């Protein structure tokens, strides 16, 4: 699941940055993605390069708040993550 959620987080952060948003609240139902992108965890897996991109892009945005939310409250993000993984 991390391999699906991580690219979606990266793409969302890149999109927010391209629009010039100074503050972003990024949510995911994957605690691994939230902790990794927020710098709270070490990552040594297949998504490590993507997490590194997330950290890099988030530093370009003035303020990014990474929040974990339960899957049942995050249906739209789950659909976007699937779309990102397939494309």
UniProtKB/TrEMBL annotation:
Q: Domain (RNase H type-1): give its ranges.
A: 5-83
Q: Which domain of life is it from?
A: Eukaryota
Q: Name one Pfam family in it.
A: RVT_3
The GO molecular function terms of this record are: nucleic acid binding; RNA-DNA hybrid ribonuclease activity
Q: What InterPro entries does this protein map onto? A: RNase_H-like, RNase_H-like_dom_plant, RNaseH-like_sf, RNaseH_domain, RNaseH_sf
Q: Which Gene3D superfamilies match?
A: Ribonuclease H-like superfamily/Ribonuclease H
Q: What is the official name of this protein in its record? A: RNase H type-1 domain-containing protein
Q: Which organism is it from?
A: Triticum urartu
């Amino acid at each position: 699941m991390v391999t699906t959620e991580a690219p979606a987080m990266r793409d969302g952060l890149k999109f927010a940055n391209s629009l010039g948003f100074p503050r972003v609240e990024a949510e995911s139902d994957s605690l691994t993605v939230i902790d990794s992108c927020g710098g709270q965890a070490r990552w040594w897996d297949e998504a490590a390069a993507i997490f590194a991109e997330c950290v890099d892009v988030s530093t370009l945005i003035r303020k990014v708040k990474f929040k974990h939310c339960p899957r049942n409250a995050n249906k739209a993000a789950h659909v976007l993550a699937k779309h990102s993984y397939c494309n």
